[in-house]
Amino acid sequence: MTRSLKKGPYVDEKLMKKVGKRKSSDGGIKTWARASQIAPEFVGYTFLVHNGKSFEEVFVTEDMVGHRLGEFSPTTKFIKHGGKMQKEAEMAAKAAEVAAAQAAKAATK
Predict the structure, then answer these.
(1) Which backbone phi and psi does 93 adopt, to 5 degrees?
(2) CATH number for the segment(s) 13-72
(3) Quick check: 58 and 33 in contact, CB under 8 A?
(4) Which residues, at least 6 apart from 91, have a Cβ–Cβ distance to it below 8 Å?
(5) Residue 6 Cα distances to 1, 3, 9, 66, 68, angstroms
(6) Whole-angstrom distance, CA of residue 88 vs CA of residue 60
(7) pLDDT in tens, 50-80
(8) Average pLDDT value for residue range 93-109
(9) 8 A C-beta contact, residue 40 and residue 65
(10) Where are the domains of the chain?
(11) pLDDT tens-digit readout, 31-55
């Protein structure tokens, strides 16, 4: 949900103070403020954004300005879509790869 234009963007005050005190060459800035928007002053800094379990390293570029810090630190780990069909497709791809490797090996002899 977007924030009202008359209120302006939400940038955590403590985070702005930390950025003001730091040099971009220093280590990451640790934060739990996932809802904070990325301001133009943040470009070039590395943030350690908490995802609920650990801190994910996020290097801010110009393309990220206006987005939230939490968008770049996922809270859930995607494993894969699965099922019987997916497993069969993976087995077929692996068998084809092995066959291709054996054919290449036989051709070099």
Answers:
(1) -65, -40
(2) 3.30.860.10
(3) no
(4) none
(5) 15, 9, 9, 16, 19
(6) 40
(7) 999 999 999 999 999 999 999 999 999 888 7
(8) 88
(9) yes
(10) 13-72, 80-109
(11) 999 999 999 999 999 999 999 999 9
